[in-house]
Design brief:
There is one protein chain. The protein has six helices and no strands. Helix 1 crosses helix 3. The chain has two domains: about 60 residues, Orthogonal Bundle (Multidrug-efflux Transporter Regulator, Chain: A, Domain 2); about 60 residues.
Length: about 130
């Protein structure tokens, strides 16, 4: 016999709403219902939720997680495709880091330009109000 949604949520460290969302998204199979109407979650559910949570934490989208879950079930060696997905995600993360470093530099320049004067003389506000081009 499986477990209730509440016990699975507690074990997996997610909310009941998260479990329902993942069911609607197709990342979790719909749990069978007991005669009482309550869902009856198999033991695998908590492990699958941990997999989803861990994949989300390192930046995979729900769509990518869906593909990873499918690859996880393959009998053939899925490592090549998993590596491709991870390499693509790494490229995305590196691009975000570059963008954040650019933003950091712009903010540093704005903070350095701000001498604490009140508007309308505030250089930071003036620069933010300028058109970029």
């Amino acid at each position: 016999m499986g477990r209730t949604i509440g016990s699975v949520a507690k074990e997996a460290g997610v909310s009941v709403d998260t479990i329902r969302f993942y069911e609607k998204s197709g990342l979790l199979p719909a749990a069978p219902r007991r005669d009482s109407g309550y869902r009856d979650y198999p033991e695998e559910t908590a492990r699958r939720l941990a997999f989803i949570r861990n994949a989300r934490e390192i930046g995979f989208t729900l769509s990518e997680i869906g593909e990873l879950l499918l690859l996880r079930q393959e009998v053939q060696n899925p490592c090549e495709r998993v590596r491709e997905l991870a390499m693509a995600k790494l490229g995305t993360v590196r691009e975000r880091i570059r963008n954040l470093r650019e933003i950091e530099g712009q903010l540093e320049a704005l903070v350095e330009a701000c001498d604490g004067q009140t508007p309308p003389e505030c250089p930071l506000l003036d620069r933010l109000g300028q058109r970029s081009g």
